[in-house]
Specification:
single chain, 2 helices, elongated
Length: 66
Amino acid sequence: MTHDPLFIVIILALFAVVTVLAVGIGGFGMGGEFNAKHGNRMMRWRIIAQAVAILLILLFFAVRGS
C-alpha cells in the first residue's frame, strides 16, 4: 500500500494540511501584521487542503476497495 502512487499523493495532501494549519496557528499566536494580513487566507487554504485530502481518501477507497 505504501508504494501506491495515490497513497503517496494522499500523504502529501495531509502534509500540506498540517503545514498550512501550523503556519496559520503560528501567525495567530504571534499576532501582529502577519495575522491581520494573512490569518483568514491561511484558514481558507486549510479548508481547501482538507477538502482535497478528504476527496483523495474517498477516491482511494472507491478505487482500491475497502
